[in-house]
Amino acid sequence: MIEVKAISGYEKVGRNMTALRVDDKVIIFDMGIDLENYIKLVGEDDISKISVKRLKTAGAIPEDAFMEDWKDKVIAIVITHSHLDHVGAVPFLASKYKAPIIATPYTIEVLKKIIKENSFHVKNEFKVLNPNSHINIGGIRIEFVNATHSTPQTVMVSVKTKKGYVVYANDYKLDNYPVLGRKTNMKRLKEMGEEGVLALIMDSTRAREAKKTPSETVARDMLRDVLLGVNHKGKLVVVTTFSSHLARLKSIIHFAKLMNREVIFLGRSLFKYCTAGDDIKLTNFSKKVKIIGYGNKIRRFLERMRPEDRGKYLLVMTGHQGEPNAVLSKIAFGKIKFKFNEGDAVIFSCRVIPTETNIENRKELEDKLLEQKVRVFKDIHVSGHGCKEDARDLINALKPKYLIPSHGNLDMRVGLKELALEMGYSESKVILMDNHTSTSLDE
Ligand SMILES: [Zn+2]
């Protein structure tokens, strides 16, 4: 018996959780939060005082009541990567399943830091599994296939069943020139395709975009262009990006050195994700840059900067989505006694994640920066999600019997379905699931 339950992440982007039943064993893929709903609910409050029930009602974490009849069968909770929409709900949901949490070293390290930072209690055992390796658990072979994305050590998960592999690919891109880490392991994916893949549960976020997602080296070139190709002499240069995007941070450090500038990382989440990378020896950022994680120290550093030193630094700070409590917004809105001067540069090495809150926050922030005559450089970025032509290549490599589009709203998932139909799949083999539905893959 092989059955998939869509718990969450099948109606909008975020809050991912899927379960796979193979006979009497169940494997959970991801336990993520909806960051927007989560922040709306938690705000400045103490998260430990907010109940799981309230988090569920607010749509911040997956409603897993639909898992009740499978609860005692769960043998593993597998987390694909360190993004909060994949790992963030572990502290709230994992403990009720008597199963280990399996993830790559980087993901486990980030998870441990999240747990420690918030004094969460997670009872489950942690099992570290490297990309491109496998584990046998409860008689089932679970394999991690290395995938490129926008945070290190992202994996596709493959579960071996008698009817073929079931592969879970959220999130991925097919970057042949990654800046950090290895390429997506297409060789192994093709091998599995030859052996037989029963189903592919697949990221559909960008499936409608008719292109191949550019490599991270393209973002690196864009950064080179705005850092080395623009005269910033004597001016302050600020870059803001995703804290978990260690490859991007690596490029920023590289160009800052060529500019003869000292790099300072400012912000709590930068501290968390970078020290996680250093702790497992994936990176050695703390040898190359100064990382200041906490409020008072950040304030002190900025307030004590001498005017003649502004051209000697490159500051990387949190706040790329205009988050009001991040370092960049605090400076722009005068909550820290440190001012931007005319001609200083703020480089947004990201895109605006299109939620109402982000769009509003970013607009207010940019307006404020422009008012202070700051030079704003937007969208110095490439995505971590595969587009239509990547999706085609992945489907061609794995040749799954069934395709289950996930990680997207209905329109995105229909986009992936249309591609599959174009590739010759019949309607019945492409399964559009909604949250809290299940589908049997036995026929
Ligand atoms: Zn992701």
Protein topology:
Elements: E1 2-8, E2 17-22, E3 25-29, H1 35-42, H2 52-57, E4 74-78, H3 84-87, H4 90-93, E5 101-103, H5 105-117, E6 126-128, E7 133-137, E8 140-147, E9 154-161, E10 164-169, H6 186-195, E11 197-203, H7 216-228, E12 237-241, H8 246-258, E13 262-266, H9 268-279, H10 285-288, E14 290-292, H11 295-303, E15 313-317, H12 327-332, E16 345-349, H13 356-371, E17 375-377, H14 388-398, E18 402-406, H15 410-422, E19 437-440
Parallel strand pairs: 3-4, 4-5, 5-6, 10-11, 11-18, 12-15, 12-16, 13-14, 13-15, 16-17
Antiparallel strand pairs: 1-2, 1-19, 2-3, 7-8, 8-9, 9-10
Helix pairs in contact: 5-9, 6-14, 7-8
This protein binds zinc ion (ZN).
Task: Please state the structural category.
Answer: alpha/beta
- Shape summary: globular
Rg of Cα set: 22 Å
- Report the CATH architecture of the largest domain: 4-Layer Sandwich
Query: Could you estimate the helical fraction of the residues in percent?
Result: 25-40%
| Strand order, largest beta sheet | 6-5-4-3-2-1-19
The percent range for strand residues is 15-25%
- Tally of DSSP β-strands: 19
Number of helices: 15
Low-confidence stretches: none
The small molecules bound here are:
zinc ion
- Cα-to-Cα separation, first versus last residue: 10 Å
